[in-house]
Design a protein that fits this description.
The structure is a homodimer. Chain A is built from ten helices and five strands; from the N terminus they run E-H-E-H-E-H-E-H-E-H-H-H-H-H-H. By secondary structure, chain A is α/β, with parallel strands linked by helices. The first copy, chain A, has two domains: 134 residues, Rossmann fold, CATH 3.40.50.2300; 56 residues, Arc Repressor Mutant, subunit A (Orthogonal Bundle), CATH 1.10.10. The longest helix of chain A is centred in the last third of the chain and has 14 residues. The interface between A and B is large, with 37 and 37 residues. The structure holds a DNA duplex.
DNA sequence: TGCTTCTGATGACAATTGTCACATCAAAGC
DNA sequence: GCTTTGATGTGACAATTGTCATCAGAAGCA
């Protein structure tokens, strides 16, 4: 009997996943949380064998959660739910210690299969997804990423410079570099591409 | 026994919803589709009483699907899954003929409840959601929306003008107006706000 | 007919963005 | 000590964006 915790901010989806997994006689959902923070509390008391987590969540995202879980509860397996377009998250989640990735686009049988493999000690990732993640390497430096992130929030160069304790010229250079690396038209395009890829 | 079709592009979520709904003895999922187009085909042959649909999907989104379903199969009830932040979709979905809205953030019991009410002929929407949709009226004209949409795709003024068969000056005016209406800093900010609200 | 409203366009110009050559400085390596 | 590298900044300038006053044409109305 594998004990599972589900971390997903949308209650409806979370309940549905719970229903799906509880259909399996060898699985049992022992905890549910809407974000990484709450999850950490529940994990301490419910001791799941494996957590199934989304990435984009309020307060603490799935990658940060993975890092914390691997640190505090190294025996707990971490399965990340992601989408094909956001391959940028893969690398970061792997560095954080994730054990497997399940595509939201995948059939549910794949999820059950993945959970079983992970509990046998394997690392699981869709080969195409892995290739895509390797192909789609994030070209942005941390500075460029930050500048681009704030640009995406609508901040002007001057405001970004202030926020990052840099001069306008440097910010403009970073953004220009980011635009070039992403082969984008302008800031809007660069933000769109980077967000699409999961690089922001 | 209420026959339901689920339309949701993420297979895992779709299967999970199917598992959740099939737990109810009075409900039965008779069809599943990943987008509006496929859904229309399946609906014709499976004759569900109600469809549960997401909005953001490839090929044909949930609002377009609602319109088509209400036109071709006026007796089929339409329940839309949405999120609190995207209230901009509410009005458009209502105009298209949607019968109810269920928040992804809502507990699953609310979904079951909603389905029962809708089958009794009621229109269902969370009061807070309705208020938010009324409060958050989309201020953009169709022209502004289009210009802003293309700006968000990274197109420059000249390219947008070409696409919309307008002059650059007019496009700049539309975008400037949109920026003003949304109280945004610049194009990036305006795109961010409008997307967040479901106005694009 | 004259007036008003609506839509799209023009022009001017300030502000901002994007690019690139170049400079400076500190740290690391030989 | 000298050279290289990486990070940050400068300056110049072209390109683009954003704002606003104004105009023109068409449609509707008294």
């Amino acid at each position: 009997m594998t004990k599972i915790a589900i971390i997903e901010d949308q209650a409806l989806v979370r309940a549905a996943l719970c229903a799906l997994l509880n259909l399996e006689s060898k699985l049992k959902v022992v905890a549910q949380a809407e974000n990484g923070k709450h999850a950490l509390e529940l994990i301490a008391t419910n001791t799941p064998d494996l957590i199934l987590t989304d990435i984009e969540m309020p307060e603490m995202n799935g990658i940060e959660l993975t890092r914390e879980v691997k640190e505090k509860f190294p025996n707990i397996r971490v399965v990340i739910m992601t989408t094909f377009s956001r391959t940028g998250y893969i690398r970061r989640a792997m560095e954080a210690g994730a054990d497997a990735f399940i595509l939201k686009e995948a059939p549910s049988t794949y999820l059950i299969d993945t959970i079983q493999k992970v509990m046998l000690g394997k690392k699981v990732i869709d080969p195409e997804l892995a290739l895509s993640a390797l192909d789609d390497l994030d070209p942005l430096t941390e500075k460029e990423r930050k500048a681009l992130y704030f640009a995406g929030q609508g901040l002007k160069t001057k405001e970004i410079a202030k926020k990052l304790f840099l001069t306008e010229g440097t910010v403009r250079n970073y953004l220009s570099e980011a635009i070039s690396k992403l082969n984008a038209s302008n800031r809007i395009d660069a933000v769109r591409i980077a967000q699409q890829k999961g690089w922001l």
